[in-house]
Amino acid sequence: MTTTTEVPWYVTKRGELLAKQFLFELDPNDLVYTGDHPEHFFDYMILYLKSDGSPVTIAMTVKPTEEEIKGVYPVKVSELNRLKNANIPVLMLVIDVKQNHYFFNWVQEVTQSEELAIANSDELDQSILIPLRHGTTEEIQKLKQEILAIN
């Protein structure tokens, strides 16, 4: 699990379990957990097969937290820049481990206002707030359709 700050082991473990539940709901064809690698960039590499058999690969980074999520999540500018420059779509999954709620967004969909905040940031350690979608059953199904529509 990649985190913006150090979190207690039990929050990380709970986040791993809830991430697996989220992935179960997304129902990929295959996935690889990469979070144990000391120099990992993502927590999961996820593979889908379209109806024509062509593959779609995305990456997912997981952020477990005990903090209440109010539609946004702070991410360090340096991490956001690294994730946005990936050559595959990156999904950020934020998990409220107290309430068992999922929140997510595509890293590449950071809006112009967030881009402006990044551009005006003097420090790469500074955080900006990333808007998130609440992971309801309906939103997770929409997400799966978005994934299958990726070219």
Strand content: 25-35%
Taken in chain order, the helices and strands follow as: HEEEEHEEHEEH
Given helix and strand content, the structural type is alpha+beta
The CATH homologous superfamily is termed D212 PD-(D/E)XK nuclease, catalytic motif
Keywords, separated by commas or semicolons:
single chain; 151 residues; alpha+beta; Trna Endonuclease, Chain: A, domain 1; six-stranded mixed β-sheet; two-stranded antiparallel sheet; 4 helices; 8 strands; 30% helix; 30% strand; globular
Tell me what you see in this structure.
The protein has 151 residues and is an alpha+beta fold. It has a single domain (9-148), classed as Trna Endonuclease, Chain: A, domain 1 (3-Layer(aba) Sandwich), CATH 3.40.1350.50. Helices cover 30% and strands 30% of the residues. The strands form 2 sheets. The protein has a 6-stranded mixed sheet. The mean pLDDT is 87.
